[in-house]
Write a structure and sequence with these properties.
about 525 residues, mainly beta, twelve-stranded mixed beta sheet, 35 strands, about 10% helix, binds 2-acetamido-2-deoxy-beta-D-glucopyranose
């Protein structure tokens, strides 16, 4: 096997991923939390629209250091008014999801199609060694957040605390999610999914957002209920507890809506330490219940993954699907640029170190072809969108206001919509065009961030924009539960191994499945990769 290490202005990486047995990855769902019905009797319920209307924090306009990110389209920073948002280390922004995930295939919720939600995790006890449990998970609700322009009219946000309801004798109460380490969030219908590394998934019900007293305590205190410093709490309705065979591990960290299939899937990914494989697994979402689909032919009550892969990508913080690729983010620390990878499971991965440090979750917004990411480094936190076609946009200069705390985002004049100029798309060919040095062998680039291009079948490997699509692996009945659902139809089952070239699919049709066939991946020699993807 030829191993090439390619140094470019941006950094590139390529490797294989190994297909796992998807039937190993299952969850057990809990009953709906019955304390919610009791809380309904004593607390005021509000809608997502109410929360957005009440949002009062104004985000800052984006700064030049954000604008300098290749393919940047738009973005913003958190208000400096509350240090917890921008400078404190207590809360760390982790995942994000839009009204386009909730409303799929529409982008509108409560008549608004530019809503963004961002999850924040208090990771004080991430290592398990802290004497403080942390405050769990909170969610920012951002109004008009993804609208065009530098400073969209009416853009504002507020936070809500995620809580776990319980009965305390006769009284309904709730507590914060202490010791939950959560990197991902997906809004689907009225549910908010968050990952929990230890447990699996937690699902919160947005039909039961409670308006509570905004003081420091959390839960029932005498006759009042408090929100830990927030006006709103959102109750946990279900848990999905990991159910794995002996010897299999999976610690869900990132989460996104995966539009590669119809109906879409929930894509979950691990964040693993230096030099170790991360597992990515996909679960169908039931478009009626908005819960995970349950396979009839396997254990009756358990959702089963439709595919699972492992890849030698460590510090992976986000993963989503757009434009025929999976897009992964990877964060190597507060002083190192964050990376964006294009991944075809079983094929190859190309990456570039382009983000300001601290990149976390990633979510796709089809309107505008936007890949949204959050960055977590205190003092330089960002929320921004890149063009998923990897085109540079022509934007107005950053508004003259200073990048520090003085600009509270209220002075912007509403910028121009970006006119996308370049036709250049990152692909095998484009990558080659940007290569400034090709070395055979092993090399390190400062900061430990570097790329390896490793091609199993250099000549035959399809370029990124022309992947070969295979019908899904349907062994064991996993993923074929809903007979009435598009992905489970008899016709598609019959065509199981039919190869569908991607370019024949209309652009706006959801791709059914991608990835190399099980056997060819299994036969892949376990050749060593180097550096970040080192085996
Ligand atoms: C996957 O795991 C299931 C359950 O353990 C097993 O029955 C099946 O044979 C496995 N499939 C493969 C391809 O290894
Ligand atoms: C896009 O912009 C970045 C800087 O923002 C630059 O490094 C890169 O070369 C540009 N790419 C293209 C294709 O113009
Ligand atoms: C921190 O996490 C560890 C491991 O999960 C747990 O045993 C410990 O109780 C936690 N500490 C606190 C203060 O909750
Ligand atoms: C959102 O911002 C855009 C761009 O500034 C503006 O045209 C639109 O009216 C705003 N929408 C709302 C609901 O305020
Ligand atoms: C990662 O997975 C590959 C493919 O299964 C395997 O060959 C390799 O040993 C794994 N590496 C580590 C560090 O676990
Ligand atoms: C989807 O949800 C509906 C309503 O809860 C249920 O009737 C149906 O069986 C579910 N289908 C699958 C595949 O889970």
């Amino acid at each position: 096997m030829l191993t090439k290490i390619i140094l470019t202005l941006s950094l590139l990486l390529s490797t294989q991923a190994a297909l796992l047995n998807e039937t190993d990855y299952t969850f057990s769902i809990s009953a709906y939390n019955s304390a919610i019905a009791e809380l309904d009797k004593v607390l005021k319920k509000v809608s997502v629209g109410d929360v957005l209307t009440a949002a009062k924090y104004k985000p800052l306009d984006y700064s030049q250091w954000m604008r300098d990110t290749p393919y940047f389209i738009k973005g913003f920073r958190w208000s400096q008014k509350d240090p917890a948002d921008e400078t404190d280390t207590e809360w760390s922004p982790q995942g994000l999801t839009t009204s386009w995930d909730s409303g799929y295939p529409s982008g509108s919720v409560d008549g608004q199609d530019n809503i963004l939600l961002v999850s924040w995790n208090d990771q004080r006890n991430k290592t398990g060694a802290s004497s403080e449990a942390g405050k769990g998970v909170r969610v920012s609700f951002l109004r008009n957040a993804t609208a065009q322009g530098v400073s969209p009219v009416n853009r504002a946000y507020t936070h809500a605390l995620l809580v776990e309801p319980f009965m305390n004798g006769q009284n309904a109460d709730y507590r914060l999610l202490d010791n939950v380490i959560s990197g991902g969030i997906v809004w689907r219908g009225d549910y908010l999914y968050i990952t929990d590394r230890q447990l699996g998934l937690r699902v919160f019900d947005l039909k039961h957002i409670y308006q509570v007293k905004n003081d420091a305590s959390v839960g029932k205190n005498g006759n009042t209920y408090s929100g830990g410093g927030y006006d709103y709490v959102i109750p946990q309705a279900y848990t999905y507890t990991k159910s794995l065979p002996r010897g299999v591990s999976f610690s869900p960290h990132s989460a996104s809506l995966d539009r590669n299939t119809t109906p879409p899937c929930l894509l979950l990914g691990e964040s693993t330490p230096d030099g170790t494989n991360a597992t990515f697994a996909r679960f169908f979402l039931n478009s009626t219940s908005n819960l995970l689909s349950i396979s009839k032919s396997s254990s009756p009550t358990k959702p089963v993954a439709t595919w699972a892969y492992k890849a030698l990508l460590f510090n992976s913080e986000g993963a989503t699907f757009a434009n025929g690729n999976y897009w992964l983010t990877s964060n190597d620390g507060d002083n190192v640029k964050g990376e964006l990878y294009q991944w075809l499971p079983g094929e190859r991965t190309d990456g570039q170190a382009i983000f300001p440090p601290g990149v976390q979750g990633i979510a796709y917004k089809p309107a505008g072809d936007e890949l949204w990411v959050v960055g977590s480094v205190p003092g330089k936190r960002y929320v921004m969108a890149l063009n998923a076609g990897l085109k540079n946009a022509t934007l107005e200069q950053v508004p003259a206001a200073p990048t520090g705390g003085a600009n509270d985002g209220s002075g912007g004049s509403g910028g121009q919509d970006p006119a996308v100029q370049s036709k250049k798309k990152m692909s095998g060919g484009a990558i080659a065009g940007t290569v400034i040095g090709v070395l055979i062998g092993v090399s390190l680039v400062g900061g430990g961030v570097f790329m390896i291009m490793r091609r199993r079948k250099a000549a035959q490997t399809p370029p990124v924009q022309e992947p070969v699509y295979l019908k899904p692996e349907l062994s064991g009945g996993a993923g074929v539960a809903g007979a009435g659902q598009a992905w489970g139809s008899k016709k598609e089952l019959a065509n199981e191994q039919h190869v569908v070239p991607a370019q024949e699919l209309p652009q706006d049709v959801e791709r059914y499945e991608l990835g190399a066939g099980r056997d060819s991946v299994r036969e892949m020699p376990g050749a060593p990769a180097e550096g970040k993807w080192r085996a």
